[in-house]
Amino acid sequence: MHRLNMKKNFTCIGILTILIILLSSCSGTINTVKYSVPEIKEQKKAYIISAENSQYIKFKFGAITPLGYVILPDDPSKEHEIIGNTDLVIKNEVEKYGVQAEIVKKGDELGNFDLLIEYHDTWRWDLKKILDKLEIVIISPKGDVISKSEFNIYKNKELHNFPSPEKEVPKMIKELFEK
After folding, report:
1. Which of 28, 57, 144, 173 could form a Cys-Cys staple with 153, CB 3.0–4.6 A?
2. Which CATH architecture has domain 27-177?
C-alpha cells in the first residue's frame, strides 16, 4: 500500500512538473532598436505596407537515436501566401497611440504621411501555424529607419505559448512608440 502511494505521488509530481514547464514556457524574445524616437503627438498619419507574402518553415520531425530525441535544424523558409492578419493587428495597435493608420500594398500611391510601417513575418507549424519571426520597421517620410522591433521564437521553438500577431504585436508596438 505504501509503495502504491509513493508511485502515485511520483506520478503526480511528474505531471505537475510537465504542466509547470508547459505553462511557463517562453513566447520568444523581442529586440527593439530605436534610432530616433518620434514624438507620438506629432505623428498623425501612418501607412502600413501589407506584406506581399509570408515566409513559412516546413515542419520536420526530429530523429530518435540511442542517445535520445534529436531536433534537426530547420530548412530555410519559403514564400507562402499571407498567413494571419498581421497588418490589421499592427493597424489597431498603432491607432491606440492616436495615429491614423491605413493598410496599403507595396507600390500604391501614398499621400502625405508621418510614418511608414513595414513588416516581415515567418511562420512554422506546431499543431497549428505559429509565428516564428516578425520584424516591424518604422520609416520616416524621408526614407530613414526610425526604429525596428524583431520578435523571434528560435531559442524557445520547442517550448512556446503558440505566439501569434495578436500576442506579440502589442508588445512590439509599445516598445516602438514609448520612450
Report:
1. 28
2. 2-Layer Sandwich (3.30)
